[in-house]
């Protein structure tokens, strides 16, 4: 197998990966970024509404980083590690200012300073934005910055498949060049997994097609734990029926949710915060309206932005306007936008501390949606994810630098492991006949949506676990029709499916275990939050068909759990 | 409110490619509804009918730029195009999908974009702020109206459609192409940037090589108007040092057009030609025109418009 050698290999070229790569290369270490797609195609580009930040001298005069941390902790239903939330809040201003220096075109106030707006769960408005294409704007800025230094090697349209580790530490990554299917062993002293989320596990998702949970599954196979895997966020306002995200910014700017009877139904569910309640609450409210017969035929409700005025809409909510028009044929300046909840974000992820370091394997780090720091707890607040990618991407990059400074070369040979990993990829599809990835994939997406979705219960979850195990068995008969070595996307789709099934099993199993409702994890059979028994992080390992579950305490600093009302 | 739904059976003919077989067509039949995007149609073909089909797609909401291809001959983002709209527009349930033009084919709808990325990187696509700002001794302020102008041109998603559709790119290796110019202008015009002179060196000569055919304007899925960026870049021409022949000719041409309109209210073709290319160059051209029997057009005598004062007022702005 061909070999390359780097100080650090970063898997994923979204905001978190690029930020980590930037920091590592700036310190003089060699860094390779491996991505399935060209960096600007990463899912970070799809983030819309904004990035939360307390900026000194440019925030609401009553606001403070402490309020921001508190909002984040309460929004996350107290499963948030409070030291992480504080770090996020206290570094938010400087990260936004950094991106501004690098040329990000934030919307401005009349005096030229960066503008701000409200997002769900915020006590004071603190979301900074570039129209409603904030993710795209920041991703381009950061890619353009990182690619300009010439110090980071980009391997885009490469498929990272397996982590290589020895007894105690990470040794590299096996990846395929998608153009010709040649496997490479990227030897590395440190590996950062920043491979993003997993939306394709769900029938309805706002995520990109590339979000197939590769990073999580890669970690699981390397005997690394996922933290809080049962916490899956559903976004209340995905466009019906294409599931394209209609940014929460719409509600931040004053949009109102209405049912088929024309009622502003959020008065029933969150009388104080109304349409700006956190996402889990609004998602459940919408599903309840639809289930109880107050939705529109087909199963959706309406989002009204028409009163904001055409000019304002086209400037601040351009994408929402365009998406409604292009994909649902609705003129949002005059009509309701048809919306329903869809999968949106994964709060769970590779277990790391606030420096991005994983406790299971020395030299392994994770950042962004792939990681669970945990800063979102049981439910993420809108515009905290872009912030997380950059703040913790940078923290992780700095920690990798520290790690490299004290690095000692291991003596054991690891090449055999890499060859085994290459073989394991081919093993998945070595059959000459059987099933295709599509046959299994579509079932998985339905089971996840049906049984491991917005509302969960014991029977459904048990059903999900057993069905996923069946799919995992079926996968042994998977084969690839395309025998070509050139850009063989069928082969990679099959590997992605393997990743999705492993992750799906862990999500369903841990959700079955958590017998309470907290944030986005809502059990109809246990509708109350239970701090006595469940104020703790789930830690899950995958071993064969068994999901090994343990728990660890949530880090508390100054906020005691209280009832979460909005 | 209830959304109108319609369904249709569609035959999608995909122009496929492998290194071994070259190009060949393959047909797929599927049912679509009013909301089916081409990316979704392709996804369904791949997972339900033919897993061997290769294409790129990521965000399915027209912000990542992965899925550029030709749909019934039109350069489009597959995600931003609804199948039913195309059926209606062409009055046929048979639709062709082909890879983008100009770029080398890799497999099926996947093309090699290295040439495109090289063009983008040539224009130094990043802000070079002042040291004071980088060191935290000063802060940027940007007027909302400047932000608006820059943001228009900053929204390029690197999809490559404009380059694939640009005839000048194919003819002139020195022309950077529409997307790179949009990106280049976005930084050239940014008041926070400090390397204007270097940017002019990269951009001005190339800007005068655009033929103003407006293909980029027509195909851009984000309405960036690269051609407008090129026009605005040309306005920086007078600041350029060490002017190339292309720049000099371009400036002369603009000057000639301006003075022709100032004097007569019209573009007097032969006069503009003469001022732009000089007597010798124009005479060579005359011989060519004579040979092709088109000299009579060059010799048409045009009269100045009436109310020339009004035209001059407009020109002065």
TrEMBL record, chain A:
Instruction: Determine if Ribosomal protein is one of this entry's keywords.
Output: no
Where is each FAD-dependent oxidoreductase 2 FAD-binding domain found? 7-386
EC class, as a word, reads: oxidoreductase
UniProt-recorded name of the protein: succinate dehydrogenase
Among the GO biological process terms of this entry, one is: electron transport chain
Q: InterPro entries from the xrefs? A: FAD-dep_OxRdtase_2_FAD-bd, FAD/NAD-bd_sf, FRD_SDH_FAD_BS, Fum_R/Succ_DH_flav-like_C_sf, Fum_Rdtase/Succ_DH_flav-like_C, SdhA/FrdA/AprA, Succ_DH/fumarate_Rdtase_cat_sf, Succ_Dhase_FrdA_Gneg
UniProt lists the family membership as follows:
Belongs to the FAD-dependent oxidoreductase 2 family. FRD/SDH subfamily.
Instruction: Cite the Fumarate reductase/succinate dehydrogenase flavoprotein-like C-terminal domain residue spans from the record.
Output: 442-566
Keywords noted in UniProt: Electron transport, FAD, Flavoprotein, Membrane, Oxidoreductase, Transport
The record's subcellular locations are:
Membrane
Query: Which residues of this protein are catalytic?
Result: 279
GO CC terms for this protein? Answer: plasma membrane
Give the enzyme's EC designation: 1.3.5.1
Q: Which cofactor does it need?
A: FAD
Q: Which PROSITE patterns match?
A: FRD_SDH_FAD_BINDING
- MF terms (GO), sorted A to Z: electron transfer activity; flavin adenine dinucleotide binding; succinate dehydrogenase (quinone) activity
As for membrane topology, the entry says:
Peripheral membrane protein
TrEMBL record, chain B:
By its UniProt entry, which InterPro entries does this protein fall under?
A: 2Fe-2S_ferredoxin-like_sf, 2Fe2S_fd_BS, 4Fe4S_Fe-S-bd, 4Fe4S_Fe_S_CS, Beta-grasp_dom_sf, Helical_ferredxn, SDH/FRD_Iron-Sulfur, Succ_DH/fum_Rdtase_Fe-S
What Enzyme Commission number(s) apply to this enzyme? 1.3.5.1
EC class name:
oxidoreductase
Which spans of this chain does the record mark as coiled coil?
Answer: none
Q: Which GO terms describe its molecular function?
A: 2 iron, 2 sulfur cluster binding; 3 iron, 4 sulfur cluster binding; 4 iron, 4 sulfur cluster binding; electron transfer activity; metal ion binding; succinate dehydrogenase (quinone) activity
The Gene Ontology biological process terms listed for this entry are: respiratory electron transport chain; tricarboxylic acid cycle
Cofactor(s), names only, from the UniProt record? [4Fe-4S] cluster; [3Fe-4S] cluster; [2Fe-2S] cluster
Keyword list, A-Z:
2Fe-2S, 3Fe-4S, 4Fe-4S, Iron, Iron-sulfur, Metal-binding, Oxidoreductase, Tricarboxylic acid cycle
Family recorded in the similarity comment: Belongs to the succinate dehydrogenase/fumarate reductase iron-sulfur protein family.
What protein name does the entry list? Answer: succinate dehydrogenase
Give the organism the record lists.
Sulfolobus acidocaldarius (strain ATCC 33909 / DSM 639 / JCM 8929 / NBRC 15157 / NCIMB 11770)
């Amino acid at each position: 197998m061909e070999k390359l050698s780097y100080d650090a290999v970063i898997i994923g070229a979204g905001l978190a990966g690029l930020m980590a790569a930037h920091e590592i290369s700036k310190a003089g270490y060699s860094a390779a970024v491996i991505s399935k797609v060209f960096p600007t195609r990463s899912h970070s580009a799809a983030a819309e509404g904004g990035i939360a930040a307390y900026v000194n001298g440019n925030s609401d005069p009553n606001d403070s980083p402490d309020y921001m941390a508190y909002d984040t902790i309460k929004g996350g239903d107290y499963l948030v590690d409070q030291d992480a939330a504080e770090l996020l809040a206290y570094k938010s201003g400087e990260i936004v200012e950094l991106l501004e220096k690098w040329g990000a075109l934030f919307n401005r106030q009349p005096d030229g300073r960066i503008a701000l707006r409200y997002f769900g769960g915020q006590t004071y408005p603190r979301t900074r934005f570039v129209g409603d294409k904030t993710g795209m704007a920041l991703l381009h800025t950061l890619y353009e910055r990182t690619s300009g230094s010439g110090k980071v090697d980009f391997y885009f349209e490469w498929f990272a498949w397996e982590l290589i580790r020895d007894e105690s530490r990470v040794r590299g990554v096996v990846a395929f060049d998608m153009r010709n299917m040649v496997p490479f062993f990227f030897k590395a002293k440190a590996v950062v997994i920043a491979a993003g989320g997993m939306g394709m596990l769900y029938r309805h998702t706002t995520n990109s097609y590339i979000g197939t949970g590769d990073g999580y599954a890669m970690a699981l196979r390397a005997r690394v734990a996922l933290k809080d895997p049962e916490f899956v966020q559903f976004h209340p306002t995905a466009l019906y029926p294409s599931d394209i995200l209609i940014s929460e910014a719409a509600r931040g700017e004053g949009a109102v949710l209405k049912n088929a009877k024309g009622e502003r139904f959020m008065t029933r569910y969150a009388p104080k915060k109304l349409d700006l309640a956190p996402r889990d609450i609004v998602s459940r409210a919408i599903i309840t309206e639809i289930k109880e017969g107050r939705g529109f035929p087909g199963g959706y409700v309406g989002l009204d932005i028409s009163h904001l005025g055409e000019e304002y809409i086209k400037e601040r909510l351009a994408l929402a306007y365009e998406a409604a028009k292009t994909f649902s044929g609705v003129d949002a300046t005059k009509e309701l936008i048809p919306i329903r909840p869809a999968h949106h974000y994964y709060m769970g992820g590779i277990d790391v501390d606030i420096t991005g370091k994983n406790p299971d394997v020395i030299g392994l780090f994770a950042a962004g949606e792939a990681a669970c720091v945990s800063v979102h707890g049981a439910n993420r607040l809108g515009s905290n994810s872009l912030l997380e990618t950059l703040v913790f991407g940078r923290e992780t990059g700095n920690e990798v630098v520290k790690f490299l400074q004290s690095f000692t070369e291991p003596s054991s040979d690891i090449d055999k492991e890499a060859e085994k990993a290459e073989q394991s990829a081919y093993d998945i599809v070595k059959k000459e006949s059987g099933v295709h990835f599509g046959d299994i994939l579509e079932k998985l997406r339905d089971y996840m949506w049906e049984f491991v979705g917005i509302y969960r219960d014991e029977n459904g979850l048990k059903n999900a676990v057993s069905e996923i195990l069946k799919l995992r068995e079926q996968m042994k008969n998977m084969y690839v029709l395309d025998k070509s070595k050139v850009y063989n996307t069928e082969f990679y789709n099959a590997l992605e499916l393997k990743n999705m099934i492993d992750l799906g099993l862990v999500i369903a199993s841990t959700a079955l275990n958590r017998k309470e409702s907290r944030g986005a994890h809502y059990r109809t059979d246990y509708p109350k939050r239970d701090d006595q028994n469940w104020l703790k992080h789930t830690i899950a390992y995958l071993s064969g068909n068994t999901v090994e579950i343990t728990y660890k305490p949530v880090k508390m600093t100054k906020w005691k759990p209280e009832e979460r009302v909005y | 409110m209830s959304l109108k739904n319609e369904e249709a059976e569609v035959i999608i003919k995909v122009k496929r490619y492998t290194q071994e077989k070259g190009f060949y067509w393959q047909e797929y039949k599927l049912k679509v509804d009013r909301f089916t995007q081409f990316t979704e149609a392709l996804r369904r073909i791949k997972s339900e009918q033919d897993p061997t089909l290769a294409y790129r797609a990521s965000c399915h909401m027209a912000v990542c730029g992965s899925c550029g291809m030709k749909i019934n001959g039109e350069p489009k983002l597959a995600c931003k195009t609804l199948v039913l709209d195309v059926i209606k527009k062409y009055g046929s349930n048979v639709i062709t999908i082909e890879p983008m033009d100009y770029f080398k084919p890799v497999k099926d709808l996947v093309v090699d974009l290295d040439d495109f990325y090289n063009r983008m990187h040539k224009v130094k696509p990043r802000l070079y702020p002042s040291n004071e700002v980088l060191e935290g001794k000063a802060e940027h302020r940007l007027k909302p109206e400047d932000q608006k102008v820059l943001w228009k041109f900053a929204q390029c998603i690197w999809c490559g459609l404009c380059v694939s559709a640009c005839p000048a790119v194919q003819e002139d290796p020195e022309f950077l192409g529409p997307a790179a110019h949009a990106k280049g202008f976005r930084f050239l015009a940014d008041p926070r940037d400090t390397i204007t002179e270097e940017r002019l060196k990269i951009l001005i000569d190339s800007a005068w090589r655009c033929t103003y055919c407006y293909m980029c304007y027509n195909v851009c899925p984000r309405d960036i108007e690269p051609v407008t960026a090129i026009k605005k870049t040309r306005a920086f021409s007078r600041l350029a040092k060490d002017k190339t022949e292309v720049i000099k000719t371009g400036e002369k041409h603009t000057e000639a057009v301006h003075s022709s309109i100032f004097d007569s209210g019209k573009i007097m073709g032969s006069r503009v030609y003469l001022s732009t290319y000089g007597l010798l160059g124009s005479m060579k051209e005359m011989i060519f025109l004579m040979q092709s029997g088109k000299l009579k057009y060059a010799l048409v005598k045009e009269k100045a418009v009436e109310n020339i004062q009004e035209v001059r007022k407009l020109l002065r702005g």
